[in-house]
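[step 3/7] fold_predict: job queued, chain A
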Amino acid sequence: MQIVSYNDHRKIAEHIATAAPANRSIMLDPFCGAGGNAIAFALSGRWKRVYAIEKDPATLECAMQNARIYGVHDQITWFEGDCFEILGLNNGDKEKEVGALKSVIEQYGVVFASPPWGGESLDLQDRNAICLRNLSTAFDRFSRTGIQERGSL
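[step 4/7] structure written:
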C-alpha cells in the first residue's frame, strides 16, 4: 500500500490553482475521502470556499478531523452523501439534490474529481458510477466552464 503525502496534495492544489480561470473562486472535491485534497485546496488560499462531499460517514468524520488539525475546518463546507445525488447528476431522483451548491459550482466552481479507484470495498454499482466515461458525462456541465485536462501533473 502506498501512502500519499501532504506534498502530493499540495502539488495538485498548486497545479489546479494555476490552471483555473481567474473568475473561478469555488473548489468542489466530490470524492473527498479523508480530506487530503480538500485541505490542500483550503490551505492554498486560492479559493473563497471549498466544498467537499464524501459518501462514507466515518471517512467524512476523519476528513473533518484532519481539517481541524490543519486549521482549515471553517474554510470547507462538508456534505455527506453520494456526489451524483447531491449535485443532481443521477438523472433521476432529485430528493437529495442541493440545488444551491449545484448552481454555485456551475457559475463559479472548479471540480476536482479524484474518485476511489478500486478495492474490495467498492460494490459493482459504485464501480460503474465512477468509471471515467461516466464521470466525464456526469461532470461535463461543470467542465465546459472550468478546467479542461491539460496533461499529467
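[step 5/7] annotate
The helical segments are 6-19, 36-44, 57-70, 83-86, 99-108, 124-129, 132-138, 140-143.
The chain has a mean pLDDT of 78.
exit 0
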